[in-house]
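hey so i finally got around to running the thing on that chain from the lab meeting. sorry it took forever, my laptop kept dying and i had to restart like 3 times. anyway pasting the input first so we r on the same page abt which one it is
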Amino acid sequence: MAGAQPGKIMERPLGERLALLTDLYQLTMAACYFDQGMADEATFSLFIRQYPAHRGYFVAAGLAEALEYLETLSFTEDDLAYLESTGLFKPPFLDYLKQLRFTGEVHALPEGSLFFKDEPILEVSAPILEAQLAETFIINAVGLQTLIASKAARSVYAAQGRPLVDFSLRRTQGSDAGLKVARASYLAGFLGTSNVLAGKLYGLPIFGTMAHSFISSFAQEIEAFRVFSRVFPGSTTLLIDTYDNIAGARNAIQVAREMEARGHRLQSVRLDSGDMAAISREVRQLLDEAGLASVRILASGGFDEAKIARTLAAWGRIDSFAVGTRMGVSADAPYFDIAYKLVKYDGRPVLKLSTGKVTLVGKKQIFRHYDEQGKMQRDVIALRGEAVPGDEPLLRPVMRQGRIIPPQPSLKDSRDYFQAQFARLPEPYKTLIEPRLYPVALSPGLRQLQAEVEDKMRQGELGES
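ok and heres what got predicted. didnt touch it at all, straight out
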């Protein structure tokens, strides 16, 4: 394991590098707004419409990346030359993009916040062209990290206090996803990651053991163990299942004794296949009988919250888990129905009436009520100007006039905040199968405005009386 200070590998600002990382229709809509002189303030709200199966909460993540993008958003000469080459955009609009900067404000849930369906994760208010252009990147950045943090939190809960490490990099969908998975899983309580670049960029603890190929490259398994233990005497973890878990455990015991003679200790053995509960019990017995009670058992191989829970329920003697593919791609719920919708323009509350996709109007705030024991009891989605006495407002101003409001929390701060929040969520809402749905209501003011705007839209647009 090693720690590092956060570092940077790209000097150009995020928003400058990724200004064209957007859907074409964001730019064509922006060109129309420009053509019509539409520059009034618009508010867009980001939220998740539905829970995937067996989900009852979400963990907010990705805000830091979204804010960095907004603060540094600009189009380079190369970007503008490419857009000109498409033949879609007129010179005055391209000239406008040359000087475009985000000038708006953002209210958001702090990273690590627990939230629930239909609640705004963040709201962007800016001239409509600027706010519209932000849509694709914000959904991408916040959606992915929130997806992974929510999945990782379930694994942390299933592990019942045992350490978890992210081993997902090889099978995440692309290098950037691998970095974001390492970050989001750490925020949700993982101990660290195997991803060395993520360790450098985000200051995460990094962990690693060995591959089966390393062991099979030696004539005998025990020789591979001996070499590794001599090169890394302070952090030796031995993978024991290449040929046979029990034979591998006995070889690990022999190497552990050799290490002790040199003044070192074997840190752990790693299981990667087979009936994890049964094998771990047998390996634990062998280690204990050899006087190696301090040697821990690490398990890897297809783990997520479901397999962790099954293994521990079967009396598995596992001290820590390496969690890879199924967490890194959120295999059972690989996407959220996350949306970024216009809720106010030019002082006018607006909404969408599509079947199953009705949006909540206006700038909003979330208020959270706690019971006498300090546990989360219910939320209320309200208009931003409303007050709910005794309840905690959750959305905070994080950007003003296009600039991030300091100080912003560190990743460790956000991790600590998540752990404090999760401790306040009652158990029935945490369960892995069919959790109870957390109560979320609309405030009287929001209910009234919502009804008024819906009635007005149905009469004006649909001709209903």
